[in-house]
Amino acid sequence: MFKFASLLAFLSVLPSISYAQSQVYGQCGGIQWGGPTTCVSGSVCTYVNDYYSQCLPGSATSSTSTRSTTSSTSTRTTTSTTTTGTGPTSTPAAGNPFVGYDVFLNPYYAAEVKAAAAAMTDSSLAAKAASVANIPSFFWLDTVSKVPTLGTFLSNATALQTSSGKKQIVPIVVYDLPDRDCAAKASNGEFSIANGGQANYYNYIDQIVAQIKQYPNVRVVAVIEPDSLANLVTNLNVAKCANAQTTYKTCVTYALQQLASVGVYMYMDAGHAGWLGWPANIQPAASLFASMYKSANSSPFVRGLATNVANYNALSAASPDPITQGNSNYDELHYIQALGPMLASAGFPAQFVVDQGRSGQQNLRNQWGDWCNIKGAGFGTRPTTSTPSSLIDAIVWVKPGGESDGTSNSSSPRFDSTCSLSDATQPAPEAGTWFQTYFETLVSKANPSL
Ligand SMILES: *[C@@H]1O[C@H](CO)[C@@H](O)[C@H](O)[C@H]1NC(C)=O
Ligand SMILES: *[C@@H]1O[C@H](CO)[C@@H](O)[C@H](O)[C@H]1NC(C)=O
Predict the structure, then answer these.
(1) Inter-residue contact 245 to 238 (CB < 8 Å)
(2) What does the pLDDT read at residue 87?
(3) Does 156 sit in the ligand 1 pocket, CB within 6 Å?
(4) Which atom of ligand 2 is nearest to the CA of 427?
């Protein structure tokens, strides 16, 4: 809904331009969408979810505007893509995979940010907003239909590496498990376990692998499946999570093994301090992550864990937020320094990346578990390899700030009541779609300021 409103606002300040076709990355369909349903040349209208189809770069032969991931794709296709190299597969580099590399700026987010800045009437705010396009964030492969776009970005990163002489690392999020988001509703995915989900997931991973194989000269770093393994630590009392346990482990193991085979550096998602950092949860979490690492044959490409993805916690809080009361791990640094040694003892010498994209402002929430479009949040510390702990490879922006965490429309099938709590910004559009007023707040509350 808000996407629609913000695009209307955008159009209203540019009355002389009429979009007979949507621009690259523009919306081109979805329930209640009243705008154009075709895309400019060089892009294809691609189903993202029932509420949102988007013009993604490519030609009409590679994808169509219809849903591309039905159960008809449930048989695993062995891709016979011609590869131009052996892939950066065999020898993992020692040490921090970010060091010596520029993090590739994904054009998808940059285009969202540029459109958002253009829609702002306050020119000083708009200038700050536009600068966000130069800050790297991760590209979320949250549907199989986005995988061809990864190929485009890898091609762009390879070209940039050649022209600039600066090595490029392309950051992605692997996020398409069957029965995804098993303890909440806002980010329900496209695959279900009951309907061929595991085979669909294997196909999704195979397609990612096939793209990466074609671009062996750039490095890829991936956050693996936000929330999934953390849900297995604490939410097996939820029937959907209990039912998904075996499939999640099987699918994540497949992802780790296959992506390691093409040299992707991986960080499994490990929730955050206010989730797995509690005394009752942290040792079970360490055991689970260590067992996943071993299931991937202790590959050095499974570099470690990602924390605070899409969350709001400080890396190092000046003082504990009152909502953290009772937990000695009241920020991400305490959590990581507690979890790291437990992982090492369990045989997993894990390093960390920490999302600080929306952690600029603190003490905003009513409860630590609140996660949906938190009011008053600001962009946080910029991505860097200068970190306060030798366990932390990099501060990163995994969540692209400005994309909604979930809708506040209680009639939506993906409505989660967390998104209508008093500390959640409302009205909010569907998860993953652009949330203009929320982005404006992130910009104006950025700390350090933009
Ligand atoms: C990115 O790659 C695509 C496909 O190779 C190409 O069409 C496009 O022009 C590239 N964009 C940039 C900014 O290099
Ligand atoms: C909320 O979602 C329902 C179901 O998709 C839709 O019919 C309704 O128009 C939406 N309401 C608003 C205010 O967006």
Answers:
(1) no
(2) 46
(3) yes
(4) 13
